[in-house]
Amino acid sequence: MEHPSVGSIDFDAMAAMSQEEALQSLLNSFPRVGLQASEAGRARCLVQSMLYKRQEGERVFLAYTSNLVSCGLRDLFVYLVKERLVDGVISTAGGVEEDVIKCLGDTYLGRYDLDGKDLRRQGINRIGNLLVPNDNYCHFEDLFTPVLQELHQRQRDSLWAEATAPSDYIAAMGKALGTHCPARCEESLVYWCYKHDIPVFSPALTDGSMGDMIFFYNFSKKGLVVDPIRDVRRLRQLGGARNSAIVLGAGLPKYHLLSNISMDRVVIVTTGIEADGCTSSCTLEDDHAVGLLRADTEVVRVQGDATFVFPLLAAKF
Which of 1, 19, 93, 230 has the most CB atoms lying inside 10 A of its own CB? Predict the structure, then answer.
């Protein structure tokens, strides 16, 4: 057969190495271990190439679900945009809100088995084993409401000649963080995207706390517009001669990115399964069948939790 034999991890050799050398050896062993270790090894090679050995004319995009910015993976995302290693970001409304909220109040580590009803009575929201006090969302409202007022005034002044896209709302929040939260703004992905003019796309901007605030603002003020169509055009125009994507999780971020830009290379990390019956979390065969991926797209799909898989893929040794 013209295929390599299954390999193993040489723990005897690793015992004599430094921690950094041992970790590098472990990661280098993945491609020949088989099953998901091999997929993780292939994915690491692609991610390393996308981030640190970018080809001429290549654009790199990051898509992630909101839970990944609620947890500590947010700091890795911040590093990627701060170092300008990605050209565009796609997430859900929660993936934007949770980033901004973390600059206004801390998120705490709890447990999965904590009583959700009891936490709610205490004014605490649980995201898996993460705990977010309600006060954090109140602080977010204090930051976001003036942003809405400013954007609404711009729309009125222009007589609504050009409506405001979700990416404009997000950039305005990044600017507001720099002004009103100087002590912690550099912890934020949204802030660094604003600083480096990296667009953040969130077509379902109203699907979250921001949506509630936009609704209630419009209820009293009238006329504030959110125009997601402008962002569809902007995302498509952002594509380059070559395009690569890192997709963490499924759902809206994955589908919105891959359905609007033709990709040459894609790494997907997901816990989604074919039984979902959903285009956003289906198998690679289904992704090809519905046209999300070209027949010649180089793609690796890792079945696993991005909170521990992606740091292994992105860490530079």
Answer: 93
Cα–Cα distance measured from residue 24 to residue 312, given in angstroms and rounded to the nearest whole number: 10
The four Cα atoms 101, 107, 113, 114 give a dihedral, to 10 degrees, of -90
Token pair 């222009």 is found at: 158
**Beta pairing partners, 243:** 59
pTM: 0.92
3-state secondary structure the chain: CCCCCCCCCCHHHHHCCCHHHHHHHHHHHHHHCCHHHHHHHHHHHHHHHHHHCCCCCEEEEEEECHHHHHCCCHHHHHHHHHCCCCCEEECCHHHHHHHHHHHHCCCEECCCCCCHHHHHHCCEEEECCEEEEHHHHHHHHHHHHHHHHHHHHHHHHCCCCCCECHHHHHHHHHHHHHHHCCCCHHHCHHHHHHHCCCCEECCCCCCCHHHHHHHHHHHHHCCCCECHHHHHHHHHHHCCCEEEEEEECCHHHHHHHHHHCCCCEEEEEECCCHHHCCHHHCCHHHHHHCCCCCCCCEEEEEECCHHHHHHHHHCCC
Give the CA distances from residue 177 to residues 86, 183, 204, 231, 311, in Å, rounded to whole numbers and listed in that order.
21, 9, 22, 22, 27
User: What one-letter code names the amino acid at 270?
Assistant: T
pLDDT per residue as tens digits for the range 27-56: 888 888 878 888 999 999 999 999 999 888
| CATH for 37-314, options being 3.30.420.40, 3.40.910.10, 3.40.1030.10, 2.50.20.10 | 3.40.910.10
Burial class (CB in 10 A: 0-12, 13-18, 19+), 130: middle
Q: What is the CA radius of gyration of the chain?
A: 21
pLDDT tens, residue by residue, 140-160 = 999 999 999 999 999 999 988
Query: 277 falls in which pLDDT band (50, 70, 90)?
Result: low
